[in-house]
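QA checklist item 7 of 12: single-chain prediction sanity check.
[x] sequence parsed
[x] length recorded as 370
[x] structure emitted
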Amino acid sequence: MTNNIKISKNEIRKIEDVYDYDKLSDEEKEKLQEVIYRHPMRIPKYYYNLIDWDDKTDPIKRMAVPHILELDTSGDYDTSGESTNTKLPGLQHKYSTTALVLSTNVCFMYCRHCFRKRMVGYSREEIMKRMEKTVEYVKKHKQINNVLVTGGDAFTMSNKMIENYLKNLSAIEHLDFIRFGTRSLVVKPERVYKDHELLKILEKYNKQKEVIIVTQFNHPKEITEEARLAINALKEAGCTIRNQAVLLKGINDEPNTLALLLNKLTSVGIHPYYVFQCRPVKYVTHFQVSLSEGIEIIEEAKKKLNGISKAFRYIMSHPRGKIEIFSKTDKHFIFKFHQNKDPEDANKVFMRDIDNSANWLSEDLELIEK
């Protein structure tokens, strides 16, 4: 049995250090080196030790360890039009009420399905370098009622930087809440539950503006006892925790698995609010399921959920907005704009003839396969 193999080092950064690397052919090793040259590898000790090496389809391994399928160049690097919404380096303003801050390009783990592969762990060109510019922009745009500080992973920032964001943003009267995007609860929970300084900072500013933690649990195996320690610590600090899962082939694209994930999340006090269609990002498309499959998986999973755990929306994060993948009839897919970049798309409902191979919508909202 191999599933009890553990590592003692803090993290894995070299493909040679992965347990089953020596079993690969020379050609496979060469291809994997090419993968991580383009998109780096980083796996925290905690998350690496969740891998069951006896299971060839282990979901933790699939999300963390590079694969030669990442050499597939189909798709695009920016599938949601983030570049067109950039107002300052590191600041995006796509939806009128929300400002998004790319505070860092660093993550505790570089997820293999990441939709920001163009920048995470690599490019610094899109990162916010001066927080003061963010604050100034938000102050001037009074329609903004919330800010999402993300990256990368916002909790890779120092506690001092996190506090600076909270101090300055909390002082803006027209903001209702502040969000932090982090997967630390999933991949490195000790960053949260062992850091009492961080928790005190969050508790302090949560009394001024609601602080919401946006995370991403994708599989039930990720909801461990250590993850619960981090969840409980954040809740004790007064934070609300919301989950944005991604529908991923070979990981959670089965109704029972997805239902178990969503039910477990609500049982530990995390509110699921989006399940995303995996974006057709370059080197990530092997994680996509078709829209037809996705709708069926979601609808079957919902049969096993309670009212709280089924309150999420199945969403495509599209250049024109967040489009809810609502359902399908015998002949048509049904979509609805949940959020929109342009006012003319507000609340728009539209239908398209079913195409079982389609997995995305083009800019003019036609079904495509990428």
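[x] summary fact logged: The first strand starts at residue 11 and ends at 12.
[ ] second reviewer sign-off
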